[in-house]
Amino acid sequence: MSALVPLIVMLPLLGAAVTLIFGRSPRLQVAVTTVTLLAVSVIAAVLLVAVDAGDQPFAVSVGGWPVPFGIILYVDRLAALLVLVSSIVLLAVLLFSIGQGAADGAEETPISIFNPTYLILAAGIFDAFIAGDLFNLYVGFEILLVASYVLITLGSTESRIRTGAVYIVVSLVSSILFLAAIAMIYGAVGTVNMAQVAERVAQLPQETQLVLHLLLVIAFGIKAAIFPVSFWLPDSYPTAPAPVTAVFAGLLTKVGVYALIRTETQLFAENSINTLLLIVALATMVIGVLGAVAQAELKRILSFTLVSHVGYMIFGLAIATEDAIGATVYYIVHHIVVQTTLFLAVGLIERKAGSTSILRVSGLMKAAPVLAVLYFVPAINLGGLPPFSGFIGKIALFEAAADVGTPLMIVLIFGGIVTSLLTLYALMRAWNLAFWREDDGGADNDARIEYLGSAPAADEQRETRVIPPIMTYATAGMVVVTVALTVFAGPLYAICDRIGVGLLQPVTLEQIDEGAS
User: Fold this and answer.
1) What is the pLDDT of residues 248-262, one digit of tens each?
2) Residue 23 CB burial class (10 angstroms; 0-12, 13-18, ≥19)
3) Separation between Cα atoms, residue 132 and residue 3, nearest integer Å
4) 291: part of which helix (H) or strand (E)?
5) Which of 147, 86, 167, 129 is nearest to 256 (CA)?
6) Residue-wise pLDDT tens digits, 129-138
7) How much helix, strand and coil, in percent to the nearest 5, is found in the chain?
8) Which DSSP symbol is given to 110?
9) Element (H, E) at 111
10) Cα–Cα distance for residue pair 8/124, rounded to 1 Å
11) Which of 104, 239, 487, 498 lies deepest, with the highest CB count within 10 Å?
């Protein structure tokens, strides 16, 4: 079974090479990309079932070097689950992009560039999830970031180049901090293998541990877009093509959150900064959702809600109990799927109405009733209405915080409830205006939205465009997945509970060596 582990990264990289070779054959490129992501999905599902049943992680030492000298690829329940969910999301967004490319040609997502870059992005994401050492984690980050630099500027419009430059600068700062942290950790403990780092770092003075700990948290916090280093995200994501925005919103920040989970539960379990993380989580939730309420453009609304809901994940991580970690993992899975679905739905709105500004869009309930459903279901899910997965995840986080019962936990519970209500308000206000408001040309003098007159506007008004059926099917499929997270919440949450238990137990070199054998 361990032989399957390297394929998670190798297949996308090989697929990217093949799509580059056949750059003049769009159909072959699409076929290779689709088959590659399907294969990774199947491999991830097999590994998840196997690692969950055997309660033993799988590991591979690349190049046959003995543990811990080689590059370790490590798959436990958490890594397998996130690779599975990510591959499903990547596949759905790919189908959406196929429809967009068929309708618009090379204007938004030029196939010859998009497919190989998309597979390289996937390889970077997967590599980050299964990295067993800090330097390989850094390599995974750099692979996905290099690909994201290309994807975020597709189309080469002025706004995309401008926001892409900001994204690149911020990402480089984060990477420099991460690389500096790796160098300092290696200098302090003589290894970058995560299991060895966890064993040796506890022997360092507390002050040294704290410096190393905070440096990693800042580096990963920028990637995860936690306050106060989240300023870059709301301006960077909305300008990209719809498929790119969707996959970025669903996955890229979660890679940063994943790295924070490994840092807090494995590397620095004995050097707690949980109080600081709780304060950061509260600020991220509240400031992010207040930003969403103040927006008049759907992509910016969703970008700010993305920031605010990362706060829930940091909240669960900072509680630092088995129940809280399990709830956090469940919430990550929920948010990957729901946030991606919402951005895909907004991409359809943009094509149907020619804009994503709620100052301009109106009358879509009669014009596109199916689209109304495709937006409404994930919107109320993200807002936390029962019985959906957003409600389940938030209630689980609040229960874990209540079990701890400190005054700060009570404040966080209250902040989480307020954030959830304001998220629902922002998303339902947009739904009400875009779908229920009469088609009056999107009059800007509507009394309900006069206070949004000074909010940042969307890109220039575009002509309405045809929506190919495959784009609707891809979005509808993701809506079905969001509902499945509720229908099958029991089995999924049971896996997340076991992940929570496992993450708070130290990983030893013996376990990795056994998993590699």
Assistant:
1) 999 999 999 999 999
2) middle
3) 16
4) helix 274-293
5) 129
6) 999 899 999 9
7) 75, 5, 20
8) -
9) helix 111-130
10) 10
11) 239
Indicate the DSSP class of residue 64: T
By CB atoms closer than 10 A (0-12, 13-18, 19+), residue 393 is buried
* Contact call for residues 496 and 39 (beta carbons, < 8 A): no
pLDDT (tens digit per residue) in 273-292? 999 999 999 999 999 999 99
**Site of tokens 């280093």:** 229
Please give the distance of CA 270 from its chain centroid, rounded to a whole number. 27
- Mean pLDDT within 365-370: 90
- 3-class DSSP state for residue 130? helix
In tens, the pLDDT along 381-437 reads 999 999 999 999 999 999 999 999 899 999 999 999 999 999 999 999 999 988 888
Structure tokens at 509: 């070199």
**Residue position matching structure tokens 């299991």:** 195
H-helix or E-strand containing 511?
helix 509-516
In this structure, the number of other CB atoms found within 10 A of the CB of residue 367 comes to: 14
- Residue 86 tokens read as 């990510």
Tokens standing for 129? 């999830």
Residues in the chain: 517
Report in angstroms the alpha-carbon separations of 258 from 45, 67, 391, 436.
19, 23, 22, 39
Radius of gyration from C-alpha coordinates of the chain = 22
Angle at 175 between CA 155 and CA 75, to 5 degrees: 95
For residue 464, give the amino acid letter: T
